[in-house]
Amino acid sequence: MRNSRRARIEEVEDMVALRLRQHRPDIERISIENGPVGWRCARITRALHAPKLSRSQAEMLFAEATVSMALILRFVEIEVAPENEKTPAEVLSA
Predict the structure, then answer these.
(1) Torsion on CA atoms 8, 34, 58, 29, rounded to nearest 10
(2) Of 32, 56, 75, 81, which sits 20 to 30 A from 89 (CA to CA)?
(3) In angstroms, rounded to a whole number, what is the distance separating the alpha carbons of residues 67 and 19?
(4) What is the rounded distance in angstroms from the CA atom of residue 70 to the CA atom of residue 19?
(5) In this predicted model, which residue has the larger pLDDT, 27 or 78?
(6) Do 50 and 25 contact (CB within 8 A), yes or no?
(7) Domain total of the chain
(8) Is pTM beyond 0.85 here?
(9) Domain range holding 56?
(10) Which is more confident, 78 or 19?
(11) What sign for the dihedral angle of Cα 72, 36, 41, 81?
């Protein structure tokens, strides 16, 4: 199946976070990156009041985020800025 629409990385991060918040309301932000085997969840930011997760709980959370992202990527293609083009965040920080 061909991807139906293109989205920036930030939009996909927001989609994954929104999907996870349905059953884990302490999720604040998800960061994704393109690794050697494709897109993966790199960092998950949780609310300050949230209890600390054990290692196995954290691994499970990353697995849930990765599965959610894979489901989203069935319908959305991530737009990646060319190497020589600055992202909006880089323009603002300059």
Answers:
(1) -20
(2) 75
(3) 11
(4) 12
(5) 27
(6) no
(7) 1
(8) no
(9) 5-93
(10) 19
(11) negative
